[in-house]
Amino acid sequence: MRKTSRILTGLLLLAGIILAPAMAATPDSPEIKAIKDRGVLKVGVKVDVPKFGYRDAATGVISGYEIDIAHALAKAILGDENKVDLQGVTAKTRGPLLDNGEVDLVIATFTITEERKKSYNFSDPYFVDGIALMVKSAAGFKSLKDLDGKKIGVAQSATTKKAIEAEAAKAGISVNFLEFNTYPEIKAALDSKRVDCFSVDSSILWGYMDKTTQLLPDRFAPQNYGVASKFDNKGLAAFVNDFIGTLKSSGQNDKLLAKWELK
C-alpha cells in the first residue's frame, strides 16, 4: 500500500483553519470506509482548555488548535471540514469513549506514554509540552521544593500526578493530591485555597493565568500530544499518522501554532 502522504498534494488555508485536501486510502480501510458511509468524523476534544479546545459559553462554539486539526482531518477523509462531530471529553472520559466506539479519534491534549500505547494507537506527536506548577503569587512559593506537605490539584486519569510524585521523590519532599474532573474545578480549588497548586501541562495552565497567579520555573516530564484511535483501527491510525507527518513537514502545523500563539 502506498503511503497516504504521497497522495497529499498540499494544504489549504480556508476561513482561518488549515485544511488538508481529501486523502484517499488505497483501498479504504474498514474503519475509514465506515466513517465515509456515516458521513461524519466523530472526534473527542477538550472544551475547557483555552487555545487547544474551548467552548464559548455565549455561542457554544468550540475552537482552538486541536479543533483546527479535527476539521482538517474531516476535510482529508470526507472532503468537507464541516463534517465533524466534536464531543467534549476529559482526561478521564476520552479513553472509554474510544473503547466504546463513540468517537473515532481523540485530539485532546492526550499525552503519549508507553503504557497508553498498549491500549490505543497514537500518531507521532503534533505538540510537545511539559508539566508545570501554578500557584498564588501571594503564597511566596518559588519552586516545587516549597510545596513540601502541600496539596496539589490535578486532573483525574492524567499523567500529572505520577510525574509530580517522581519529581517530589527526587527532591526529597512529600506532597498530597486532590483529583478533579475538569481544569476549571482545579482553578476554583486554587482560588478557594482548597489546594496550594494547580498542576498540568504549561500550555494549559497559561489559559488559566490571572493577575493573582504565577507559574513556577519548574518544568518536568515532557508531554508529547498525539492523535489517539482505537487499538484495533490500524488503517485509520496509519492514515492519521501520515496526515500529521504532512501537516508538520509542510510547515502548516507551525502556522497553526502561530495562529493560536502556542510554542
Domains, number:
2
Radius of gyration: 19 Å
Write down the secondary-structure element order: EEHEEEEHEHEEEEHEHEHEEEHH
Q: Tally the helices.
A: 8
Do you know the CATH architecture of the largest domain? 3-Layer(aba) Sandwich
Helix and strand content put the structural class at alpha/beta
Apparent shape: elongated
Q: Describe the oligomeric state of these chains in a short phrase.
A: single chain
First and last CA, distance: 35 Å
What does this protein look like?
The chain has 8 helices and 16 strands. Mean pLDDT is 90; it is low at 1-26. It has 263 residues and is an alpha/beta fold. The strands form 4 sheets. Strands 10, 11, 12, 13, 14 and 15 form a 6-stranded mixed sheet that branches. 43% of the residues are buried. It is elongated and about 60 Å long. It has 2 domains: 4-126 and 226-259, Periplasmic binding protein-like II (D-Maltodextrin-Binding Protein, domain 2, 3-Layer(aba) Sandwich), CATH 3.40.190; 129-223, Periplasmic binding protein-like II (D-Maltodextrin-Binding Protein, domain 2), CATH 3.40.190.
Question: TL;DR of this structure?
Answer:
The chain has 263 residues and is of the alpha/beta class.
Secondary structure elements and pairings:
Layout: E1 12-14, E2 17-19, H1 30-38, E3 41-45, E4 48-49, E5 53-55, E6 62-63, H2 65-78, E7 84-88, H3 94-99, E8 105-107, E9 120-122, E10 127-136, E11 151-155, H4 160-171, E12 176-180, H5 183-191, E13 197-201, H6 202-206, E14 213-215, E15 220-225, E16 228-230, H7 234-249, H8 252-259
Parallel strand pairs: 3-7, 3-8, 11-12, 11-13
Antiparallel strand pairs: 1-2, 4-5, 5-6, 8-16, 9-16, 10-13, 10-14, 10-15
